[in-house]
């Protein structure tokens, strides 16, 4: 199945989305954390904690964090879950270099590792992980269905998937306020702090185009997951998806 966000590109329609996304994140990596917290008004931290608290009841020991970026979710998950090993994967070496520095400073080098992987063609064997997490990265997949199937493949039977993704509120007045915020504030602040005119125009466009709620839940089910649920957070600005293989 083809999704609208798969055609939303950071730097225009020429070339593959995965290559453009890699270039974009390599470029904005030094400013990414600051931008993330400013644009979400710091609420993104509570979203991450909520996702990890749901996962904690299952005590996963082998965890993979997809689109791990600068490692904020990976570090928090390691602190809260205390797994045997957490593997963070990403296509952007620039983002993961920031993550490696954080892990080294935190002294978690024996519990967290990072490696470059294409989420649509993972190098891991079947049934390698107890849990797979994705925080704010799934809308950047070039082929959503393929990425979801790969995550299902590397999960052990009974393993759990957690996805956090930005979404658009659908009720008055948040719907109208968010439209103004995403079309004016996000691009302005993004350009100012990241010095990338395209990255933070791409962000609200990719959010608007991404399948949400029940549509996204159906995509997760088609990939091989069961017991799929979703919860809208902060008036629908973010959505938490939870599923079991």
What would your notes on this structure say?
This protein has helices at residues 17-39, 44-56, 72-81, 93-106, 144-154, 174-194, 199-209, 213-222; strands spanning 62-66, 85-90, 112-116, 129-135, 155-166, 226-233, 238-244. The chain is an alpha/beta fold and 245 residues long. It has a 7-stranded mixed sheet, sandwiched between helices. α1 packs across α6 (174-194), α2 (44-56) runs parallel beside α3 and α6 (174-194) runs antiparallel to α7. The longest helix is centred in the N-terminal third of the chain and has 23 residues, at 17-39. The chain is globular, with a radius of gyration of 17 Å.
Question: Secondary-structure map with pairings?
Answer:
Elements lengths: L16 H23 L4 H13 L5 E5 L5 H10 L3 E6 L2 H14 L5 E5 L12 E7 L8 H11 E12 L7 H21 L4 H11 L3 H10 L3 E8 L4 E7 L1
Parallel strand pairs: 1-2, 1-4, 2-3, 4-5
Antiparallel strand pairs: 5-7, 6-7
Features:
alpha/beta, globular
